[in-house]
Amino acid sequence: MRPIRQHTGRSIPLRRGDVDTDQIIPSDFCRGLSRTGYQNALFAGWRKDPDFVFNQSDRSDATVLVAGPNFGTGSSREHAVWALRDWGIAAVIAPSLGDIFTRNALRNGILAVTLGKPVVETLLDSSESDPGFEITVDILRREVRAADLRSSFEVDSRARHLLIEGLDDIDETMRRESSIRRYEESRKYWLPSLGSDRPSIREPVGGLT
Amino acid sequence: MGGTTLLDKVWEQHVVDSGGESDPDLLYVDLHLIHEATSPQAFEGLRTAARPVRRPDLTLAVEDHNVPTDSRVIKDPISLLQVGTLRRNCGDQGIELYSHGHDLQGIVHVVGPELGFVHPGMTVVCGDSHTSTHGAFGALAFGIGTSDVEHVLATQTLALSRPKTMAVEFVGMPSDGVTPKDLMLALLAKIGANGAHGYVLEYRGEAIRATSLEGRMTICNLSIEAGARAGLVAPDEVTFEYLRNRANRPEGVAWEDAIAYWNSLRSDPDAEFDRTVVVDVSDLTPFVTWGTNPGQGVPLGGVIPEPRLLADPAERAAAEQALAYMDLSAGTRMRDIAIDTVFVGSCTNGRIEDLRAVARVLGDRRVAPGVRMLVVPGSMSVRREAEREGLHEVFLRAGAEWRLAGCSMCLGMNPDRVSGAQRCASTSNRNYEGRQGNRARTHLVSPEVAAATAVTGHLSAPADLV
Ligand code: SF4
């Protein structure tokens, strides 16, 4: 992974709350096998409306999405993040974000951050009135900058570290192999296992009550 | 120092490496459930990096999201490719898979528990947000994205920060005809679709103790609809009794040891929660949704609220958009809303108790003319049990379709979809725009309300049937 310290780009406003991952990418498009190629599936339902912001020509090079509260709520589908990225989005700013969505976004190098509602409102206003309005999301300094605005955010420390250093999450965890092995030796002995030594599946006694 | 919560106890039991004050902890995963829709890219990632699956013996796979429920044959080429990929991946890695057509196949959150793979105090993850279901056992269970699925396949761990805790105290006892689904739709209406964001919910109170394990699964399943990380119910006799009849539970001495441990899995009396929400359930009535998020619900006897009266401008806009999409107007009585389709199923309400409730309400009545009713068991085991009890005869006599197991009409990913802009009373968990099909309009309801609605053709409670 290439290190990401900050991103600056034109903004795209989506003034709407509770935009769920089923809207970001309907489930029908989640039957693929790859991590790429989802740009046309992004907001597939809403993009049937020619006036929808993601259809406007003066937004086609936007990279910073500013959204309403609870963006990315709902399903765990990482396809939502892939679709945003494939369309060109590199950062998402909202007053609140779905938990799984945030994790998925950061894992894919999309800087998903939350700012206070009034700040997001200001960004939405500016973005709506000026398609050229640029926003910087700085993960190193943990702050968003735009025009004369400067606002800080919190971000998961591990995700930030991985992004800034350009590290692979799994590699990082695999370095703790000895801890994992030690833990495995201490697990409760009766925990269920699907290994070959497990008892064969018995019919439930007395049915599925 | 106050006591510790159930979440703390389960969490601490699974810390592989502590992150200290500021970093996430590395947590061990006891059970990893996978399915065809969110796993192919994870296996592909492993292959690219030449990493093996660390613990195939702690991984269980099913096919549920994209499979048809009217045939054991998958005809759709895209679905077939996705399912075929899962089969190949599981074959290559030695992962147990219950394929479409297998006796034990079904929805991942129905199959795991019914086979006894989920025990109190475990950590359970799955590339599916409704993994919260398994919290009903007092297990810490949550949904993850595909990158995390890959991480778990490779390391059997996840790096996580400990969430905040919220106690949901249900006080009083619900009256007859008020179900776990109603309790949750009422909670969601109270705190909103994002009201538990960042929290793990622990459901407590007399009403929870009196709820069956299956009902607790319905409750925990819907935790994610409040934006919560997970839901939990402390294990008790109800839990142990459920497990006693399951394959894959500990046996003999192990069972005794397990029970002793499981009995310690409850929040201490002096444990402090970050937040407490109290819901009086004694005067609750059946609840239904009118909008496009699960928090937009009212009692069935109520009317659609007036968006103008909502104080928060964002909520007002959301309500207006929802009503436009749903083609409904404020002031309409919920009981006057006519329904085209009734869907009984999903990981929320597709278990045997749900099907029994539907059959009980239907009795020897028939589905109203023009209404299509689908009854989809959550698993093939549920289907067999329902047929053993003769429930399928009730459904078929009523004019409903009796299907094979799968996610079916819960999401528009397989052939079962609400057609066009039709209106559906659904026992599933999401009423989002287009969730059940392109322009589908969804009203979330309990199994009992679904059955009564199928009979009358408009939103109804069992008490409305004469
Ligand atoms: S039944 Fe619905 S909510 Fe449950 S796992 Fe399937 S698609 Fe997801």
Query: What is the molecular shape of chain A?
Result: globular
CATH architecture identity of chain A: Alpha-Beta Barrel
Q: Quick one: how many beta strands of chain A?
A: 7
Percentage of residues in strands of chain B: 15-25%
The dominant shape of chain B is: globular
Going by CATH, the homologous superfamily of the largest domain in chain B would be Aconitase, domain 3
Residue runs with pLDDT of under 50 for 5 or more positions of chain B: none
What is the CATH class name of the largest domain in chain B?
Alpha Beta
State the domain count of chain B: 2
CATH overall fold name of chain A: Aconitase, domain 4
CATH superfamily of chain A: Aconitase, domain 4
Distance between the termini of chain B: 58 Å
Biggest protein-protein contact in the assembly? A-B, 67 and 97 residues
Tell me what portion of residues of chain A adopts beta-strand conformation: 15-25%
Structural class determined from secondary elements of chain B:
alpha/beta
Average pLDDT number of chain A = 93
* The first-level CATH class name of chain A: Alpha Beta
Helix content of chain B: 25-40%
Provide a count of the helices of chain A. 7
Quaternary state reads heterodimer
Pfam families (chain A): Aconitase_C
Catalytic activity (chain A): (2R,3S)-3-isopropylmalate = (2S)-2-isopropylmalate
Family (chain A): Belongs to the LeuD family. LeuD type 1 subfamily.
Function (chain A): Catalyzes the isomerization between 2-isopropylmalate and 3-isopropylmalate, via the formation of 2-isopropylmaleate.
